[in-house]
Amino acid sequence: MTELLSTTARDSLLAPLFDNGWTLIEGSDAITKTYRFDDFAGAFAWMTHAAIWAEKWNHHPEWTNAYNKVAVTLTTHDVGGLTSLDAKLARKFDSL
């Protein structure tokens, strides 16, 4: 079973994500980032690639799409907060 990030793990795993535009959601143990693309097709193509990785790792984001923007929220509901899987998926999303 996945476990919540320890204080040490939070510092080492989340700091690079914060440097790359992710932020903590106030009042929640979750991170969020909005990706912007040239147009709707670019946003949808990114979501398709991201969905393949989310399905492969059985970890699914909360997201919304409006034209050229995709807002993503990551947390692990089963344990009530951030886990290493959230950090892993965030890094993958940033690489797409």
Please describe the topology of this protein.
Elements: H1 7-19, E1 23-24, E2 31-36, H2 40-56, E3 62-66, E4 69-74, H3 84-95
Antiparallel strand pairs: 1-2, 2-4, 3-4
Helix pairs in contact: 1-3
Structure characterization notes:
The protein has 96 residues and is α+β, with helices and mostly antiparallel strands. 44% of the residues lie in helices and 20% in strands. It has 3 helices and 4 strands, in the order αββαββα.
Radius of gyration based on Cα positions? 13 Å
Please report the number of helical segments. Answer: 3
Strand content: 15-25%
Helical content class = 40-55%
Shape: globular
Summing up helix and strand content along with how strands pair, one would put the structural category as alpha+beta
Main sheet overview: 4 strands, antiparallel
* First and last CA, distance: 27 Å
The count of strands amounts to 4
Note the run of SSEs as H and E. Answer: HEEHEEH
- In what order do the strands lie side by side in the largest sheet? 1-2-4-3
Q: Are there runs of 5+ residues with pLDDT below 50, and where?
A: none
Mean pLDDT: 97
